[in-house]
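User: Hi! I have a protein structure encoded as tokens and I'd like to know what sequence might fold into it. I'm fairly new to this, so please keep things simple.
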């Protein structure tokens, strides 16, 4: 009896194995290309790129339907009145109910209008020696990620024009001691971004709320032309679902992909720079993770290679342009 029972169990397991193998044969599992394969494909395509207005319109409509970037990108007095419950997109069981204090620090309405040429600048090491600074600065609207350095040594490669820059609360904690001691270093550092918008996910995860609020008061208490925008957790959540449905599997999207989503929803033409999460450059040589350092991100939190593959698909379709090589002088063409 025992032998018969074991045989039955083995038969069931064998049948399941055959079924799984058959499934993968008919529907093979997706395999992310290796760094070398990505480099070969990018080099194979070369500099060829053609704008596809149909693709641009399609993605603008898709992002408007799911996420409404123009209305929901940031928390405002209009979309988050007193009493509104903001559910943290990074911690699903926690929320913040808008009260008089938080309502008073929100902008009245979204300050972003439909835009023409936008540049979304990541921090990838691919930017080092790219000479893309002038191209970036010629965009009508420039977005940057996580308070990157814009000092003289990087000017030729990344430019300095900035209209919006993100600031992760963890940067406030690590680089500026949480703004508990002195705010001067933080305020002085922000001078590099002129009169831009500072975009922070204050209502994304609970540990990020207080540092974001301290950053807001540091800016408003100083003679600064900067404007603080707080990310709307509904926008972040919906954008995450949008890209997950398209093959990006990660605990959380990168800041860069959130900005690209905004740009696709609001700009007539989008070019992204510095989006290159691979260990080798186009010349096959090792490359630093950032253009200013080689500190690697935590594993499993973001899925940067998956994000790049999605952006590269959009590049090939003409929906946006991914600039990964050097930028030639204006006289030589684009």
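Assistant: Happy to help. Inverse folding works backwards from shape to sequence: for each of the 334 positions I chose a residue that suits the local structure. Here it is:
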């Amino acid at each position: 009896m025992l032998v018969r029972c074991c045989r039955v169990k083995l038969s069931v397991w064998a049948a399941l194995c055959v079924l799984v193998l058959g499934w993968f044969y008919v529907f093979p599992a997706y395999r992310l290309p290796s760094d070398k394969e990505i480099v070969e494909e990018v080099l194979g395509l070369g500099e060829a790129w053609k704008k596809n207005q149909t693709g641009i319109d399609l993605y603008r409509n898709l992002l408007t339907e799911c996420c409404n970037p123009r209305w929901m990108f940031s928390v405002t007095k209009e979309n988050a009145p007193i009493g509104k419950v903001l559910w943290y997109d990074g911690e699903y069981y926690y929320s913040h109910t808008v009260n008089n204090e938080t309502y008073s620090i929100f902008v009245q309405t979204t300050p972003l209008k439909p835009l023409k040429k936008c540049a979304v600048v990541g921090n990838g090491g691919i930017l080092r020696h790219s000479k893309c600074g002038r191209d970036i600065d010629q965009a009508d609207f420039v977005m940057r990620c996580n308070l990157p350095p814009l000092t003289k040594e990087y000017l030729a490669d990344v430019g300095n024009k900035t209209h919006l820059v993100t600031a992760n609360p963890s940067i406030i904690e690590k680089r500026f001691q949480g703004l508990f001691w002195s705010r001067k270093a933080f305020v002085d550092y922000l001078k590099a971004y002129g009169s831009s918008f500072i975009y922070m996910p204050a209502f994304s995860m609970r540990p990020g709320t207080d540092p974001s609020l301290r950053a807001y008061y540091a800016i408003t208490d100083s003679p600064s032309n900067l404007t603080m925008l707080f990310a709307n957790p509904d926008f972040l959540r919906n954008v995450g679902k949008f890209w997950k449905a398209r093959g990006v599997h990660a605990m959380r999207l990168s800041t860069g992909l959130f900005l690209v989503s905004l740009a696709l929803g609001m700009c007539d033409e989008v070019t992204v720079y510095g989006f290159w999460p691979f260990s080798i450059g186009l010349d096959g040589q090792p490359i630093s993770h950032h253009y200013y350092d080689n500190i690697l991100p935590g594993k499993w939190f973001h899925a940067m290679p998956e994000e790049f593959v999605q952006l590269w698909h959009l590049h090939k379709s003409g929906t946006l342009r991914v600039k990964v090589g050097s930028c030639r002088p204006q006289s030589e063409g684009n």
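A useful reference point when you look it over: The radius of gyration is 23 Å. Feel free to ask if any position seems puzzling.
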